[in-house]
Amino acid sequence: MKNKRAETLGDAVATIEDGATILLGGFGGTAVPEFLIDEVCDRGLRGLTVVSNNAGTNHSGLARLIGEGCVAKLVCTFPWAKESFIFKELYDSDKIELEIVPQGTLAERMRTAGAGLGGFLTPTAVGTDLAEGKQEFTIDGKEYLLELPLHADIALIKAHKADPRGNLIYRKSARNFGPIMAMAADYTIVEVAEEVAIGDLDPEVIVTPGVFVDSYYVTGPYKLGSGGNRNGGNQ
Amino acid sequence: MSAQSNFLTREQIAACVAADLEEDWLVNLGIGMPTLVPEFVPPGRDVMFHSENGVIGMGPAPAPGEEDQDLISAGKTLITLVPGGAYVHHTDSFAIARGGRLDCAVLGAFQVAANGDLCNWRLPNQTSGSVGGAMDIAAGAKRVFVTMTHTTRDGDAKIVAERSYPLTAGGVVTKIYTDMAVISVTPDGLALDAMAPGLTAEDVQAATGAPLDMSNAATISVAG
After folding, report:
1. Which pTM value belongs to this model?
2. Residue B102 — pLDDT band, cuts 50, 70, 90?
3. How close A79 comes to chain B (CA, Å)?
4. Taking 60 as the threshold, does the pLDDT of residue A234 lie above it?
5. Which of B72, B89, B93 sits opposite A234 (nearest CB)?
6. Which residues of A are less than 8 Å from B129 in CB distance?
7. Of A109, B12, B96, B124, which sits most exposed with the smallest number of CB within 10 A?
């Protein structure tokens, strides 16, 4: 059996190259894989395209990655939160490109990529600015936009527990984009609070089966309720 | 026009919305004023709240010491889960929205047109906006209730004959709750259901940029 456990953070992110497209888990400050992101920062990678719901919170996680100039393009649903001031600074000085995608469309584009489909039709954004350049279809009298799969080289996500096969469970609303991003990338890297033995996770409740996971790094138990973020949780 | 003091407070607007939420509905709440709605749902009426980040059965803020950073709302505030609630991932959460499982979405708005066009994601003078889940939820919910002030700070109507702001979703708004009135969007245009105590139907019409059917207008009963 292939050992998916990475003993060091360096080993965990060693496969990421300059110019990679990276799916970054998390919603607001919850479930952001900050240990993995910090290691990517430390490697000084450049020209990354990052897909993330938000544009970074204060100075940590994605905000740090953006601030250190690693990110060339951000694909995002909610870039203009006040805590994303580092992104705004770089955007205002033309140092980063932005693509805005409705949140449900973003999620489904990744699921579509993971499911081997060529696209999907959605009623979301019909008639809006975000429909520009997209093909429209009318099915049974209702209008839809064609949306294409969003595939990536890498996914960096956070989960609660993993077993050595890479089976994952999540915790509360920290599940958010994790299971979908794990499907949509060539290589999925997970930071988990806890590693358990094979057989310890109830097969009925495994959310992400290990087939979608390539590598995981164990951060050690965090105080439940703190968000587990190395830089101080959601605040 | 009657004095400003006759206008409804944010809490009173939220109470008007809450009174219209029905037993067994699943309801999505936008950020801002809509988040005030749950506390005004009449006791004993079972309404479930959906949060786009994968929470079905969003409960109130946690008691001191019970905070959990892994459990937040779409507005990034700390929440709880009600008994019988569930967690889902993002594609399931938005399948609920687009798939017609939301009985109602309560959203803020910059502008609403008489045909139900909703404008709430970007101002006309901005080159970009934060769309979040607004377009998916507005396009998919069975009903869209809007909460907002009746006019801009400059006194311009936010309820208009034709939209001039960037569109979020076309023809989706079913009811509008403001500090002056409750207005329904019907196939025949806008109907004034009720106005704040102390205001006349003509006061509301004067602050509205589209014709109102005033034939069934009542006065909102405000508790307290």
Report:
1. 0.95
2. very high
3. 6
4. no
5. B72
6. 80, 100
7. B124
Q: Number of Cβ pairs closer than 8 Å across A and B?
A: 145
Please count the structural domains in chain A: 1
A60-72 pLDDT tens trace:
999 999 999 999 9
Write the single-letter amino acid at A54.
N
Instruction: Determine, yes or no, domain membership for A128.
Output: no
User: What is the rounded CA–CA span in Å between residue A5 and residue A161?
Assistant: 12
Residue A63 lies in a domain: yes
Band (pLDDT 50/70/90 cuts) for residue A162 is: very high
Predicted confidence at residue A223, as pLDDT, reads 52
Domain-located, residue A168: yes
User: What is the set of domains in chain B, with CATH numbers?
Assistant: 4-34+101-219 (3.40.1080.10)
C-beta atoms of A111 and B52 within 8 A: no
Min distance B213 CA to chain A CA atoms (Å): 28
Strand ranges inside chain B, DSSP E: 26-29, 48-51, 55-59, 80-87, 104-108, 111-113, 118-119, 144-147, 159-160, 173-177, 181-186, 189-195, 212-213, 218-219
